[in-house]
Amino acid sequence: MMMSDNIQFVNPEFFLLLLLLPLIAYWYWKKYTRYHAALRMPSLESVSSLPSWKGRLRGLLPILRTLAFTALVVAMARPQAIQKEEEVNAEGIDIMLAIDLSSSMLAQDFKPDRLEVSKRVAGEFVVKRAYDRIGLAVFAGEAFTQCPLTSDHRVLTEFLQQLQCGILEDGTAIGMGLATAVSHLEKSEAKSKVVILLTDGVNNSGYINPLMSAGIAQKLGIKVYTIGVGSTGDALTPVSRRTDGRYIFGLARVEIDEALLQEIAAMTGGEYFRATSAESLEKIYNKIDQLEKTLIEVTVLKRYSEVFHPFAFWGILFLLVELVLRYTVFRTIP
C-alpha cells in the first residue's frame, strides 16, 4: 500500500502498467510508417494551400488513448483520501503567573523596559502551553488577581498586554503576590501545580512574609519558580514621580533579594533564575517550559473515502471519444 500525507493507493502495483506506454508509442509509430508511406515531391508549393485540419487533428487520437489508459491505470490503483481526526486526552498543569508591577519594573536596562519585556516573554510562554490552565496575579505594594485560572489563553494574553505600573500602591510585596497566586491553586485538582514568580526588587511591603507564603505552597504541593529581573550594576530607574503622574528617571543600583528567591524556590522544589537581559529571560521561560511537561495522549482516527471514480469516468470518456473520432471523422479506407 503506497501512501502520501492524505492520499493512499490500495493497489499501487497497477502503476507498473504505465511502463507499457513507451511500447505502445513505438507500436503506433511503426503502424503509422507502415500505412502512411512518404511521397517524395520536388516541391510542396502545389499542396501548401490544401486544407489539412484532419491531418493535424489526427494526432489527437493517440493522445486520447494514452490519457484514457493512464486514467484507468490510476483508477485500478484505487486511490483513497485519508481523513484524520485526533482525540486529545491531556493531563494539563495549572500555572499561576505572579508578576511584579512596582515602579522599578519601568527600569530601562531592558528595552524598552523590564515590564514590557516581561509581558512579551510571558505571553509567548502562555501560547506554548496549549493544554494548561494559566492564571495571572500581580503585585506591587499590594496584590490582586488579574485573571483566574483559565484555558482561554486569548483572554489571558489580553490581560498581560494591559498590565502597567501605577495601578497599585507602589512597593514590592513579594509575600502577598505569592500568597495570591497560591490561593488560586489551593483547590486545583491538577496533579501538577506551579507558580512562576517574577520580581526585580526586595520585599518591602505587605503584611505576609514571603517565606510563610512559600511554606503554604510547600504544604499544598505547589512548585514555585522564581525569576529575578534586572541587570547588574546601575540602571536608569524611576526615582520619583511628578504631580501629573509622570516618572522621573535616574541611575540607581539594581537590588534583587536573590537569597530570598532562592530559598522560596528550594522550599517548594522549584528553581531560581536570574534574567539580566531579554534573551536570558526568554531562555528561562523556555527552560521552565521544558521542565514542566504536560502529559498528552493523542489518538489518531483515520477514515478513508474512495476517489477512483473520477479517474474511471475520465478514462472511459477519453476512450469513447477516441473510438468515436477514429471510426467517424478520422475513418480511413484500407
What's the story with the biggest beta sheet?
Answer: 6 strands, mixed
Which strand order do you get reading across the main beta sheet?
6-5-4-7-8-11
From the alpha carbons, calculate the radius of gyration and give it in angstroms.
Answer: 37 Å
Mean pLDDT: 85
Question: What letter string, H or E per element, gives the SSE order?
Answer: EEHHHEEHEEHHEHEEEHEHEH
Shape: elongated
Question: Could you tell me the number of beta strands?
Answer: 12
Low-confidence stretches: none
How far is it from the N-terminal to the C-terminal residue, by CA?
Answer: 47 Å
Number of helices: 10
Structural class: alpha/beta
Helix content: 25-40%
* Beta-strand residue percentage: 25-35%
What does this structure look like?
This protein has helices spanning 21-35, 53-57, 60-76, 114-128, 153-162, 174-185, 210-219, 258-268, 278-291, 309-326; strands at residues 2-3, 7-9, 79-91, 94-100, 133-139, 143-150, 193-199, 222-229, 234-241, 247-253, 272-275, 295-306. Helix 4 packs antiparallel against helix 5 (153-162), helix 4 (114-128) packs parallel to helix 9 (278-291) and helix 7 (210-219) packs parallel to helix 8 (258-268). The protein has 334 residues and is an alpha/beta fold. A six-stranded mixed sheet has the order 6-5-4-7-8-11, with helices on both faces. The model has no long low-confidence stretch (mean pLDDT 85).
